[in-house]
Design goal:
Elements (H helix, E strand, L loop, with lengths): L3 E4 L2 E4 L4 E7 L5 E7 L6 E7 L4 E3 L7 E6 L4 E6 L8 E8 L12 E4 L3 E6 L1
Parallel strand pairs: 2-11
Antiparallel strand pairs: 1-3, 3-8, 4-5, 4-9, 5-6, 7-8, 9-10, 9-11
C-alpha cells in the first residue's frame, strides 16, 4: 500500500477549469481518479499505467487530462469545460494493475481521502 494525498479541489462555474493533484508515498503500477457524487455510485474516470497508457471514462474524455510525474510519484487531473454534473468528491487510487472504468477492480490497494469539486451553473 501507499499513502495518497489529494489537493486542488474547489468551486468553479460551469465552463471553468480545475487541476487536481495526488501525491503518493511510493510507486504503484497504476494510478487513477475516481469520483462520487451524493446518492450515486463511485465511478472511475481516468487511469495512468506505468508504461504511459492512459484511459478515460467516455463522459470526461476530451475535457479531462490525466498526467503522471514518475519522479515524485504523483498524478494530476486537469479538468476543463467543467459541468455541474462533474460535481463530486474526487479520489485518487493506486493499484497493482489498472482497472476497468467506471467500475474499478480488486487490484486497487490504496485510496486517498478525497477532495471536493463543486461546479455551479
Amino acid at each position: 500500500q501507499v499513502r495518497l494525498v489529494e489537493s486542488g479541489g474547489g468551486s468553479v462555474q460551469a465552463g471553468g477549469s480545475l487541476r487536481l493533484s495526488c501525491e503518493a508515498s511510493g510507486w504503484s503500477y497504476c494510478l487513477g481518479w475516481f469520483r462520487q457524487a451524493p446518492g450515486k455510485e463511485r465511478e472511475g474516470i481516468a487511469t495512468f499505467r506505468d508504461d504511459g497508457i492512459r484511459a478515460y471514462l467516455y463522459s470526461v474524455e476530451g475535457r479531462f487530462t490525466i498526467s503522471r510525474d514518475f519522479g515524485n510519484n504523483s498524478i494530476h487531473l486537469q479538468m476543463n469545460k467543467l459541468k455541474p454534473e462533474d460535481s463530486a468528491m474526487y479520489y485518487c487510487a493506486a493499484g497493482r494493475y489498472c482497472w476497468r472504468l467506471p467500475e474499478g477492480s480488486s487490484s486497487i490497494h490504496s485510496w486517498g481521502q478525497g477532495t471536493q469539486v463543486t461546479v455551479s451553473s
